[in-house]
Amino acid sequence: MLLLGLESSCDDTAAALVRQMPGQRAQVLSSVVVGQTELHASFGGVVPEIAARAHAEKLDLCVEKALAEAELSLADVDGFAVTAGPGLIGGVLSGVMCAKGLSAATGKPLYGVNHLAGHALTPRLTNDVPYPYLMLLVSGGHCQFLLVHGPDRFERLGGTIDDAPGEAFDKVARLISLPQPGGPAIEQAAKAGDPKRFALPRPLLDRPDCDMSFSGLKTAVLRTRYKVIDEKGGLSVQDQADLAAGFQAAVTDVLAEKTRRALRKYLDHAPAVRSLCVAGGVAANKAIGHGLETVAREVDCAFIAPPLSLCTDNAAMIAFAAIEQSHLRGPDDLTLSARPRWPLDTRQPAMLGSGK
Ligand code: ATP
Ligand code: FE
After folding, report:
1. Going by CA atoms, what residue is nearest to atom 10 of ligand 1?
2. Cα–chain-centroid distance for residue 170?
3. What span, in angstroms and rounded, lies between the C-alpha atoms of 74 and 102?
4. What pLDDT, on the 0 to 100 scale, is given for residue 289?
5. pLDDT tens for residues 240-263?
6. What would the pLDDT profile of 68-100 be if each residue is shown by its tens digit?
């Protein structure tokens, strides 16, 4: 099966071709991602209307480029997979309309995919990971532990009750005058910093569950920054580095400890779980990756971190998720609707037929 995937739920426009032959692991034949960072830079965040218009303008080009890179044409494709939610409604609609157009024009099937399912299934695109496995999704907009039982069955074990870690990295970078995206900037600055200089909190570690909170940590960085500025009249490069290192260490500690709890608890309930997988842009952070790998090793679990290009938003994961799910369900029809909210741990409504 060869699917053309489309992704446009946030600020990346993406198209990809993924093929799976029976009994073999799927292959990414091409994956094109066009970001919009400069378009939103002066606004300090993603502007939904600007994002939607940019997606509408770029989707056709991405499709053409993905086909050209794979040296294929629409005639070779077996169907179309598109993110149908969750995400910014304008962007999701752009993708869904484009995919419907392609499906109607070619008479080939259309599959609406949950964006989070795309992230959660990615480890099976890059590694031989059997179900069930534990997934920690840590990105700019999401943070949750999922027990992935199958292509359409996800059990949420816990997650953030406020900010996602990527969002916190971005906001903290802004607070200490580092550039966007904040994650890589903080990771770079932290290399020269002392993580112990400032005492920052490790929120919710007193609670036994797998829920997390990052908003208070961000406020603690803000307060510390004011204190340093009051005392010294400004923030030196070393102060920035120490704050970055302290913040990164706190996020790492929280993620590692909550992962330890998720693994221990669910190894008891589902002893077959032997893999800890990560996805989302924050998984690119070396300190966080190292912390999570250490925890996985403690309980003899494999640690799987797909390459960054497949961990951040991309369309290959959407095409692959549709291929995985196609074994369990038929395609959607042209009534497929965009769903800005679409929680993963409920039964996937698209499984029932039309994605309504
Ligand atoms: P979502 O996928 O949840 O809709 P998103 O598209 O913003 O959100 P991703 O593209 O997966 O998320 O990741 C982007 C986020 O990852 C940003 O918040 C960025 O700061 C963060 N990030 C990227 N690299 C690093 C890093 N090295 N360390 C920490 N955070 C990072
Ligand atoms: Fe995403």
Report:
1. 312
2. 15
3. 9
4. 96
5. 999 999 999 999 999 999 999 999
6. 999 999 999 999 999 999 998 999 999 999 999
CA of 281 to the centre of ligand 1 (A): 3
- Could you report how far apart the first and last alpha carbons of the chain are, in Å? 25
Confidence of residue 346 (pLDDT cuts 50, 70, 90): low
Tokens of 1: 């099966």
Size of the chain, expressed as the number of residues it contains: 356
CA 85, chain centre distance (Å): 13
Using alpha carbons only, give the angle 217, 154, 260 rounded to the nearest 5 degrees. 45
Contacts of residue 184, Cβ cutoff 8 Å, sequence gap at least 6: 284
Residue 55 CA to ligand 1 centre (angstroms): 19
Nearest 5°: the CA angle 13, 18, 21 is 170
Q: What is the rounded average pLDDT of the residues 319-345?
A: 94
For this complex, say whether ipTM is above 0.85. yes
User: Which band of pLDDT confidence, cut at 50, 70 and 90, is reported for residue 210?
Assistant: very high
The number of the ligand nearest the C-alpha atom of 187 reads 1
Q: Is 332 annotated as a binding residue?
A: no
Q: Whose CA is nearest to atom 12 of ligand 1?
A: 140
Which helix (H) or strand (E) covers residue 4, if one does?
Answer: strand 2-7
User: Sign (positive/negative) of CA torsion 195, 175, 284, 266?
Assistant: positive
Residue 149 in marked binding region: no
Residue type, 235: L
Residue 114 sits at φ, ψ, to 5 deg, of -75, 125
- pLDDT more than 90, % of the chain: 81
CA distance 107 to 45: 38
